[in-house]
Each structure stands twice: as C-alpha cells, then as structure tokens.
Design a protein that fits this description.
single chain, alpha/beta, Rossmann fold, five-stranded parallel beta sheet, 10 helices, 5 strands, 40% helix
Length: 239
C-alpha cells in the first residue's frame, strides 16, 4: 500500500494552507486533498492508502493535517503506520496563533461568538491552548522521528519575509526538485475573517503561559531565540 511519505503535523493557523497550496502543484508531490485527519479517527489503514492511490511512480505522497498536533499520542500512531515518513512542523508565535484560531473558530461556529478570546484560551476550547505548546508536541514526535533527520521545524514568519527560501528548504527536506518555482508564493490563501486585535492584557497572559514552553523549545532546537522573540506579531492574516 502507498502511504504518506511526508506529513505536516501543524501547527494550525501557522501556514499549513499556504504550504498545501504550494506543494500540491509540485510535479513530484501527490496530495488529493488537505487535512486527511486519519490518525485520530477510527478508519482502516486501507482508507488511508486509498487517498494516495492516484500517485505516480516517483511522486511523494503527502498529508498536511494540522490536527495531528492537537492530540496527545498521535506521533506513535503515525510511526506505527509510516515509520519512514518525513515530518514537518510549521510554527508561529503561539499568542498570535491562538488569537487567529479563535477568530476562525467563531467565524465557523465552532466557538460561540459571545465567548471572549481569553475565556476560550483558558478553557482550551478547540484545543486552542494545547496547539501552542510546541515543545511538548515536538517532544512526542522526536521520540520516533529524529530531529534534523526525519523531522524538521520551519517558521511561519518566513512565509511573509522569505517565502521562496522557505519553500526551497522544505522541498530540499522532502527530497523533491528544489529548483521548481511556484507561481503563487505571495498569495494570501485564507484572509482573516475579522480584523479585531487582541488586548494587551490578554496577550500578556497568554505569552506568560507559553513562556516555559518557548524556553524548552529553544533548548530542544538548540537556538538562543525564536522568530517571535524579535518580530512583532501580525493578527491580520490566518494563512
């Protein structure tokens, strides 16, 4: 059975739709649709294989499902089925990411409109708080997929400031033609449904919650700072 050769596990609202829009056009990549969401559902492995049945010889089969970073234990499920897969994590300022998710969830009706952002965050609605606990999520994945070998972390900020370079790095990691050019690098694929801005009080509380996770992430990745430590957040785009 053909299964996924690479999996982008998240994070939600961190550029996964942009990445899908780029890679689904690459001649050496096969993705029938975004967000297969297989590994936390009760579906047979044959269903998952069917999603890649149209792949040609030489194409890399991909699964971009940001919910794979929402639930504990999924890394092991993925490894059991796809032990040789390459794993991608796209990460964004967790405060910015949570606020973007809240706006999307209210727009879709998944969070009642009367529930303010900070309450939704405190209550972990739609796994809002969990999705930004990047170090905890990555620690689950690196148990099965060695960091720098079968797992790579990329940054949402690079979509805005150096999209061509980011895409080239991802294509190199996936071992597909990195010289292929995308015609839509700068397309905003999911405009924000609302232009509201997070309050400074809420931003301080959420940043304080994520501070220990960010410190652990720096240690895990061997870096001194994270992109959101030096760049101002942008709450206007969902990607």
């Amino acid at each position: 059975m053909r299964l996924a050769d690479f999996i982008c596990a998240g994070a939600q609202k961190s550029g996964t739709t942009w990445l899908y829009a780029q890679l689904c056009r690459h001649p050496q990549v096969f993705m029938r649709t975004k967000e297969l969401n297989f590994f936390y559902r009760e579906l047979p492995l044959s269903w998952y294989a069917e999603q890649f049945s149209g792949a040609a010889n030489g194409q890399r089969c991909g699964d971009i499902s940001p919910n794979y970073a929402a639930f504990a234990g999924l890394a092991e499920n993925i490894f059991r089925a796809c032990p040789t897969a390459l794993i991608i994590h796209l990460l964004r300022d967790p405060v910015e990411r949570a606020f973007s998710q809240w706006k999307m969830a209210r727009h879709l009706g998944n969070i009642p409109p009367e529930i303010p952002f900070i309450q939704a965050f405190r209550d972990n609605l739609q796994y809002m708080r969990r999705r930004g606990e990047y170090s905890a999520i990555l620690e689950e994945y690196v148990r099965f997929y060695p960091l720098g070998e079968r797992l790579a972390v990329f940054w949402y900020n690079d979509i805005r400031i150096r999209p061509a370079g980011l895409l080239r790095e991802i294509m190199t990691f996936l071992d597909v033609d990195w010289e292929w050019k995308s015609a839509d690098l700068h397309a905003i694929v999911a405009p924000s449904p609302a232009q509201s801005v997070i309050s400074s009080r809420d931003a301080v509380e959420v940043a304080a919650y994520y501070a220990p996770f960010d410190r652990r992430l720096c240690s895990l990745l061997g870096v001194a700072t994270l992109p959101w430590s030096t760049n101002p957040p942008d709450f206007s785009v969902n990607w």
